[in-house]
Design goal:
globular; ten-stranded mixed sheet; about 350 residues; single chain; 13 helices; alpha/beta
């Protein structure tokens, strides 16, 4: 079975201890027609040298000043020669048959995106969160794919099933991405994967989903997905708000069940904003500024509150959100801080 060259894009930044395992898992693929595009994004450790010493003609190694993962992935897409491309983060690794399995799904010649399941593992390879999803693989319509995406966010079960908001467990038809000018938003440092996937779904007819975990996401300290400063929190908020804006037109025209799932997602995202604001101990003024940014999305908030949620905490979050009051947000955040002391 050979459906053409596959480009594997690896953004590399300060990952000297993990990058060899990552690349070895790619070179060991049962599907052999691959190229590995590694772009060192301004590493300050020996990451570049580790890759440079790996003797395999399928590896293409580049280096650049630090620009961030979105810029680096975009550069990888511009350099890709394959008919298909996929992303693997430099500290993660994949099953030996991942590419072959994804290119063997029914109707592959008509597909533009295939996604697989993900396990979360520790840096030494021990499973931290096992993907226990036993659903059969299936072809999803764009609406169904969005539903699964927001359900995963709303219920916080992205690791238990299809990691649809994660760009690296998928294989994409290169011509599809190029024709639709689909690239990562370089202004985002949070939720950029999620925004990219939503943009892809808006341009395709279907997404094929394999629930089996073929991709292993390594959890380590210092993750970029965890805001550590008030500037990080502002960028985090910008990312989730852009996701709301992109999903809202889809769910607005859909059924009430999808609207309710969307409401749970809004609640979950707002809870993350409140919790992270409390943990970061940022100023009341910054919380006010970001709260006003959130409350400006009046139509989305009203839609979410109209459809409601099941759990008490989600209902409470929607009630607080609907007040659109920076003062109330500050009060809730101060309450979280007090609770953290006990």
């Amino acid at each position: 079975m050979d459906t053409g060259l596959v480009t594997v894009i690896i953004p590399l930044h300060n990952c000297e201890d993990q990058i060899k395992r990552c690349i070895d898992s790619i070179l060991a693929q049962t599907y052999k027609n691959i190229e590995v595009v590694v772009i060192d994004d301004g590493s300050t450790d020996n990451s570049y040298d580790v890759v440079a010493n790996m003797n395999d003609p399928r590896i293409r190694l580049y280096t650049q000043e630090n620009h961030g993962v979105s810029y680096t992935r975009n550069k990888g897409m511009d350099l890709a020669k394959g008919e298909w491309l996929t992303f693997v983060d430099s500290d993660d690794y994949i099953e030996p048959d991942m590419i072959e399995r994804m290119l063997s799904v029914p109707g592959i010649n008509e597909l533009n995106i295939v996604s697989c399941g993900v396990d979360r593992v520790s840096s030494d390879g021990k499973i931290v969160i096992y993907n226990s999803n036993t659903e059969e693989e299936k072809l999803l319509s764009p609406i169904s794919a969005i539903n699964l995406l927001i359900l995963g966010i709303a219920s916080n079960t992205k690791s238990n099933g299809v990691f649809l908001s994660y760009s690296a467990c998928k294989i994409y038809r290169t011509a599809f991405l190029n024709t639709n000018r689909l690239r990562f938003d370089t202004t985002l440092s949070f939720a950029e994967d999620q925004v990219f996937f939503i943009a892809c779904v808006n341009c395709c007819n279907s997404v094929y989903v394999i629930h089996k975990p073929l991709y292993h996401y390594v959890m380590r300290d210092g993750s970029l997905s965890k805001p550590e400063t008030d500037s990080d929190l502002a960028r985090f908020t910008t990312g989730i708000l852009l996701s709301w804006e992109m999903i809202f037109p889809i769910v607005y025209k859909s059924n009430a069940e999808l609207g309710k799932t969307f409401a749970c997602m809004i609640s979950h995202d707002f809870n993350r904003f409140l919790n992270r604001s409390a943990k970061l101990h940022i100023s009341s003024q910054r919380i006010k500024e970001i709260s006003l940014q959130i409350s400006s999305h009046k139509d989305i908030i009203d839609f979410a509150c109209k459809h409601g949620a099941d759990s008490f905490m989600d209902k409470l979050s929607l009630m607080i959100l609907r007040c659109r009051s920076p003062w109330l947000n500050n009060l809730v955040i101060k309450g979280f801080r007090l609770l953290c002391k006990y």
